[in-house]
Amino acid sequence: QVQLVESGGGLVQAGGSLRLSCAASASTFSSYAMAWFRQSPGKEREFVAAISWSGGSTAYADSVKGRFTISRDNAENTVHLQMNSLKPEDTAVYYCAAAPRRTLGPLKNYNYWGQGTQVTVSS
């Protein structure tokens, strides 16, 4: 079991940056692959980025590649999402998720979720 709490969302102008953080409760945090998803009003939740247990493997949605960077600190039980060059279409609730596996794996494995943090990008 792992509990996840996101922070760092807010309102930013287009072209700006935000850094999201996710704090995990699990003492075995390093056993989990971690990911960020997002959901905009009227749309399905979509994958944003994922990172393996060591941070050695990462994956990104095409829409954020080159602008977003996922990272983790296993000593602090945290995962971050650095978001640069933000666009209005990045506006969404961002969710942190955990999968009980060390490698990235299929998205269906991410079955632990935080409550989400709102990111709003104004044009």
Report on this model:
The structure is a single chain. The chain is mainly β and about 120 residues long. It is built from no helices and eleven strands. The strands form two sheets. Strands 2, 4, 5, 6, 9, 10 and 11 form a seven-stranded mixed sheet that branches. A four-stranded antiparallel sheet has the order 1-3-8-7, with no helix packed on it. Strand 4 (about 35-40) and strand 5 form a beta hairpin. It is globular, with a radius of gyration of 13 Å. The termini are far apart.
Overall 3D shape: globular
Question: What kind of oligomer do you see?
Answer: single chain
| Gyration radius from CA atoms, angstroms | 13 Å
Number of helices: 0
Question: Low-confidence runs (pLDDT<50, min 5 residues)?
Answer: none
Mean pLDDT comes to: 95
Calculate the terminal CA-CA distance, rounded to whole Å: 40 Å
**Biggest sheet character:** 7 strands, mixed
Helix content: under 10%
Strand element count: 11
N-to-C order of helices and strands:
EEEEEEEEEEE
The SS-based structural class is mainly beta
Gist of the model:
By secondary structure, the chain is mainly beta. The protein has strands spanning 4-7, 10-13, 18-24, 33-39, 46-51, 58-60, 68-73, 78-83, 92-99, 112-113, 117-122. The radius of gyration is 13 Å and the shape is globular.
Task: List the SSEs and their pairings.
Blueprint: E1 4-7, E2 10-13, E3 18-24, E4 33-39, E5 46-51, E6 58-60, E7 68-73, E8 78-83, E9 92-99, E10 112-113, E11 117-122
Parallel strand pairs: 2-11
Antiparallel strand pairs: 1-3, 3-8, 4-5, 4-9, 5-6, 7-8, 9-10, 9-11
